[in-house]
Each structure stands twice: as C-alpha cells, then as structure tokens.
Amino acid sequence: MPDTEYAALSFFFHVITTLWTLRDVDSEAARQRYAQAVIGAREAILDPIDVRDLHFVWKDDFPVPQSFTAELDRLAYRLAQLSGLMRGADRSAQKVVSGTEVNDTQTTLFSQVIALAHDCTRWMQTLPYHWHSVAVDSQYIDETIKAAGVHGTSCDVYANLSIASVRNWHRIVELRVLQLLRQCQASQDSHSDSPSTSVEGIQSRIQRIMDEICASVPYHVGDMMEPTSPILGAKPKFPHVRTPDAAHRNLRSLPESMSRHEHQMASSGAMILYRVLTTVIGLARDGTDDYRIVLPHDQMEWIMVQYLRIQKLLNFSLSR
Predict the structure, then answer these.
(1) Has this prediction a pTM greater than 0.85?
(2) In whole angstroms, what is the distance from residue 159 CA to residue 81 CA?
(3) Which of 11, 55, 287, 291 makes an SS bond possible with 183, Cβ 3.0 to 4.6 Å?
(4) Burial class (CB in 10 A: 0-12, 13-18, 19+), 25
(5) How far apart are CA 125 and CA 131, in angstroms?
(6) What is the spatial distance between Cα 221 and Cα 98, in angstroms, rounded to a whole number?
(7) pLDDT tens sequence across 221-232
(8) Are 197 and 113 in contact (CB under 8 A)?
(9) Are 142 and 240 in contact (CB under 8 A)?
C-alpha cells in the first residue's frame, strides 16, 4: 500500500475509532456499523485509487486548528510526502550510477527527514502534564492482568482513551520517520557527504518507543482473554493509579474515570490496540535488513502473542 494511502487510512481509523469510543452507549448494532466502516475503508483503500489531489487537504495556507492532534496530523502528512519522495529518489539513483544531482537530492531528503524527526520530538516535549503516561509498578498490577500480558515489570496508564490513542498514533508516526532515517543511512555508503545521524541513537529511540507501546497494552485490554460485552459481560480489570497533579497539591486518578474507562475499553480497547500492533508488526517485517524495525526476539514474540490475543477478543480469524 502506498504510504500516502496508508497515512490516510490510518488517520481515518483513528478518527472513527475515537468518535465511536468517546460515546457512552454501546450495542451490537453500533459494533456492526463500526466493523462495516472499517471493512469498507480497508477495501476502498486497497483498490487502485487516485490520490493526486490529497495534497490540497493540508495546504500550508489552509486554516488548520492549532491543537496537538492537528499538529500530529500534519506530521503524518509530511511523513507520507517524504516517503513518496524517497521512493522516487531511490528509483532515480538506480538509473544513474553517478552524478551530483542524485547526491544533492538524497542529501536534501535526509535533511528533511531529520527535521521531521526533530519535530516529532518537539511535539512530545510540548505536551501538557496530563497528557503524559504514568508507570504502574508490578506490585500494584492485578495478577490477572499480569497473566494476560505485561511486558517487563510495569505498565503505563493515561488520563483517558483519547490521549492514549493520540500518543500511540504519534509513536507510529515517529517509528516510520526513524525507519526513513535508517533508509537514508543505508544510502550513505555511496553518498558520504549526506548529513549523518547516530545509528545507535536511532535504534535506542526505536526501542524506547516500542517499550512504550508494549507498556500501553494492559491499559487498553486489561485482563481480557475472551470477547466480552461492556454491558452484560464479566467486568474486566484494568491497571490504575493515583498520582500527584501538576501542582503537586492533590492526587489525580489515572484513568480519570475508572467506570468510563472499563466501559470504553471493554467495547473498543482491543480494536484500537489492534491497529497499533498491526502497524508495528508490518514495520518490523517491511524493507531490507538495513532499515527495518529490529526488536529483541523475546519482545517480538510477546507482541505476536498479544496480537493473537487481540484477534481472539475481536473474533477475528486467526488465519489472517
């Protein structure tokens, strides 16, 4: 799937998931409508479609709301643009054995990818206090949640579903940007005058992002091991914590409303996480060994186990 189409599809999934899950009602009909929307979007995006006019959506002079989510969408669009430009540069490099034009193009693209990586970091650094996750140590996590799946000795909790969803969407965008940096590095063997970025630094950041994604799994699916209804099903358990607020004067609960969180996650937590893990697995398998996402074997195995677990929660065929 072309990166531009992929970015559009991912954003669409993010929007319809957030809009549906922020509602306080749930029914079988609502679930069916949601599934139909996802399947319809997937089938449409896989068809041969023309996306030449997509750039009109985010023109530089377009009055885009200045919010964290809007800024993240702009980062995702820049990523899609750079991915397409880099594919074109790679094809040109294959046709031209030598030449300063190809060299200059790749150097410029590398600089743009580095700038995008810096903007991804800046986005995260400008988030307000309540947008950051809080780690819950193993001793405060219910045993049933540990048995279902906790990577390492802790997991992360967020103020609400919307924040958790946006944070993971940012992680997916940044992972792809880091993958492009790896791709640029792979081309430096024949273009040594390109800007340089630490291989170790990129891999360290990739690992940290993956650890954060893994740490978000219990927040989304708790101890759920079987499909459940948020109304009639067994009440699942989720990690939670009370922590000082930004002023360190009062304690705040994460999630903010446990009853609301239980309802939302029982109905849609698995679907939200499914999109995230599907993308992660795709990035880990995509491309050559020079720049694909490389994870420790035990972590990749853990992700695959959770992926199969989520498929089961969603009643998806395990043969997919």
Answers:
(1) no
(2) 32
(3) 291
(4) exposed
(5) 11
(6) 53
(7) 999 999 887 667
(8) no
(9) no
